[in-house]
Design goal:
Order of helices and strands: HHEHHHEHEHEEEEEHHEEHEEEE
Distance between the termini: 31 Å
Radius of gyration: 22 Å
Number of strands: 14
CATH architecture of the largest domain: 2-Layer Sandwich
CATH superfamily of the largest domain: Antithrombin, subunit I, domain 2
Number of helices: 10
Helix content: 25-40%
Length: 402
């Protein structure tokens, strides 16, 4: 039961009580009702998709942006009709939210998130490419550009130059951080939906590289020696019988990376299910400011996946079926169109951010004058990057090997 997690007492957090970490900044404006619906729908989709990905890639690192995937699918949904739309809405948890509200809310929410903190570099690239023997309605193209900042265009999929065009587009959208999206295109396909997401944040309280040491990580590949970063100070922390968690703010504190570490003997899949079924909001509200010692490995994940099988498993079948998919709001030949590829590529690079303190001697774990609290992330863990005020989950991942 998650209640055990949510009801952690002050006694669980006794080391460091009374230490206060800075609060996140206020949003420049209130979150609209439409944005709240999108956030709730996206967060629900995030946990369902992440749980599916974690299960299907049990031995691999995963770093997905279900938020980015839902945004790309929202773009494509503008062209659908009938049961194709119904299935997409169901998978994305959008219920009765109108198309116009979905479009406007994604546009305004992404504008808010990408411009909120200049020290958190968050870039999203969406593109929908269709085979050049189809004509597409201008209002569909305009909606993609206006609401999703997406490139919607025609390509000759039989021409090898199509891959170069696609990769150049996504590289530009992510300022070169993700230069290659596809290696090839199947000329028989009629439509490609692509989403590339990049995030890099400067920790508000940075790790000092002088205190990074070679230490073991016990993951799917057995014992591996990795670069283990170390920081001591006030941090937002939670502990229960099932897990430990710490939230590390970026920049001004709007975004944070929360590390969720299952207790020894507790599996990642069970922990993900625990967070999903009992509510991320309920869990994250239990974080308390404590003085602690944190050991966290450096990690870098470049991840990509074709999401077709995952979406079909959720019930979004029709959009992928030639002859059954209904994209008649996109083209007069919309019955001949279907999604051939839905692909996402992401990058996360977590390190000390290059900050070097004046001290030259290794820093010993601190006790703050009381019993020290130590969190050592030396086994598989979960990563969640989220905007702390609106509650938007942007990325979810797991690290099982270095």
């Amino acid at each position: 039961m998650f209640a055990c997690v949510a009801c952690a007492s002050h006694a669980d957090l006794q080391p460091g009580v009374g230490i206060t970490a800075p609060a996140p900044p206020a949003l420049p404006r209130s979150v609209t009702a439409g944005e709240q619906k999108i956030i709730a729908a996206s967060n629900d989709f995030s946990f369902r998709l992440f749980r599916q990905l974690a299960r299907s890639q049990a031995d691999s690192n995963v770093f997905a942006s279900p938020f980015g995937a839902s945004m790309a699918l929202g773009l494509a949904m503008n062209g659908t009709a009938g049961t194709t739309t119904d299935q997409m809405r169901s998978v994305l948890s959008l219920g009765g939210v109108s198309d116009s509200e979905v479009n406007e809310s994604y546009r305004s929410l992404v504008t808010l998130l990408t411009g909120f903190d200049p020290m958190a570099d968050f870039r999203a690239g969406n593109a929908l490419w269709y085979r050049n023997d189809f004509a597409v309605h201008q209002d569909f193209i305009d909606a993609g550009a206006r609401s999703y900042d997406a490139q919607v265009g025609a390509l000759d999929f039989a021409n090898s130059a199509a891959v170069q065009t696609i990769n150049a587009s996504m590289s530009t959208a992510t300022t070169g951080r993700i230069p290659t999206m596809l290696d090839r295109v199947d000329a028989s396909q009629t439509m490609l939906l692509l989403n590339a997401i990049y995030f890099r944040g400067t920790f508000r309280d940075r790790f000092d590289p002088l205190h990074t040491t070679a230490q073991p990580f016990y993951g799917q590949a057995g014992e591996q020696v990795t670069k283990m970063m170390y920081r001591v100070g006030p941090m937002s922390y939670f502990a229960s019988h099932e897990l430990e968690a710490v939230a590390l703010p970026f920049g001004s504190g709007a975004f944070a990376m929360t590390i969720v570490l299952p207790r020894a003997g507790k599996g990642l899949e069970a922990t993900i299910a625990l967070l999903q079924t009992s509510g991320w909001t309920q869990f994250s509200s239990q974080l308390r400011d404590v003085g602690m010692n944190l050991f966290l490995p450096r990690f870098r994940i470049l991840w990509d996946r074709t999401l077709k099988d995952d979406l079909v498993a959720f019930g979004m079948r029709e959009a992928f079926l030639p002859g059954a998919a209904d994209f008649t709001r996109m083209s007069t030949r919309g019955r001949e169109l279907s999604l051939g590829v839905v692909k996402q590529k992401t990058l996360i690079d977590i390190n000390e951010d290059g900050t070097v303190a004046a001290a030259t001697a290794p820093l010993a774990p601190s006790t703050f004058g009381f019993v020290p609290l130590v969190m050592r992330v030396e086994r598989p863990f979960i990563v969640v990057i989220h905007e702390r005020v609106s509650g938007t989950i942007v990325f979810m991942g797991k690290v099982v090997r270095m």
